[in-house]
């Protein structure tokens, strides 16, 4: 099953010694001593000077910079509260109802909040719920036959070669 962002960060961190030959602490010390001071520059430095992949470089740079990026994903409830605050607060009830329906699809269906949307996962991501100003955008990865039958329009963001990506919007009675 697909991992949450916090689980992915933990998995990447635990695999760093196997992949690089150095522990996370060794990388953090190296970045702090020899790398640039700015977070984004540290990522680029790790990628160019040490041939690291983007996500691994981001995890190391984050830890070397104090860990603010990874802390975003430690509390799913806080992500949802932030996502549905202010002008989007009226959408929260609709989101909760939609999540209730979606999780009834099976025990293996997981909703994983991100900073700007919630990922819908069953083995792999099959959809997203993203609040817009006055509506929820729901994106689903459908195969071609399903997308022809559905009354939804093409979307970007869930592209896979074997699936059509579609989205639909749910509004909260706004006109």
Task: Give a description of the structure.
Residues 160-166 have low confidence and may be disordered. Helix 1 (5-20) crosses helix 4 (54-64), helix 2 (24-34) packs across helix 4 (54-64) and helix 3 (39-50) packs across helix 4. The chain has 175 residues and is an alpha+beta fold. It is elongated and about 55 Å long. The protein has helices spanning 5-20, 24-34, 39-50, 54-64, 68-71, 76-83, 92-103, 144-149; strands at 110-113, 118-122, 124-131, 135-142, 153-154, 164-171. A six-stranded antiparallel beta sheet has the order 1-2-3-4-6-5. The protein is 46% helix and 20% strand.
Estimated share of beta-strand residues:
15-25%
Largest sheet geometry: 6 strands, antiparallel
In N-to-C order, the SSE pattern is HHHHHHHEEEEHEE
According to DSSP, the number of beta strands is 6
Shape: elongated
Could you name the key traits of this structure?
46% helix, 20% strand, 175 residues, alpha+beta, 6-stranded antiparallel beta sheet, 8 helices, elongated
Tell me briefly what this model is.
The chain is built from eight helices and six strands. It has 175 residues and is α+β, with helices and mostly antiparallel strands.
Per-chain topology:
Elements: H1 5-20, H2 24-34, H3 39-50, H4 54-64, H5 68-71, H6 76-83, H7 92-103, E1 110-113, E2 118-122, E3 124-131, E4 135-142, H8 144-149, E5 153-154, E6 164-171
Antiparallel strand pairs: 1-2, 2-3, 3-4, 4-6, 5-6
């Amino acid at each position: 099953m697909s991992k949450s962002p916090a689980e992915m960060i933990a998995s990447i961190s635990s695999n760093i010694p196997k992949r690089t030959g150095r522990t996370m602490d060794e990388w953090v010390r190296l970045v702090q001593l020899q790398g640039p001071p700015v977070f984004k520059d540290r990522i680029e430095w790790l990628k160019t000077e040490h041939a690291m992949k983007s996500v691994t470089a981001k995890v190391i740079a984050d830890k070397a910079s104090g860990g603010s990026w990874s802390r975003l994903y430690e509390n799913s409830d806080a992500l949802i509260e932030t996502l549905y605050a202010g002008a989007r607060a009226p959408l929260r009830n609709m989101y909760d109802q939609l999540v209730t329906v979606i999780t009834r699809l099976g025990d293996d269906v997981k909703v994983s909040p991100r900073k700007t949307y919630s990922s819908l996962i069953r083995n792999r991501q099959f959809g997203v719920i993203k609040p817009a100003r006055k509506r929820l955008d729901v994106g689903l990865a459908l195969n071609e036959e399903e997308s022809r039958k559905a009354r939804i329009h093409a979307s970007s963001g869930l592209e896979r070669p074997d699936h059509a990506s579609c989205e639909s919007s749910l509004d909260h009675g706004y006109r």
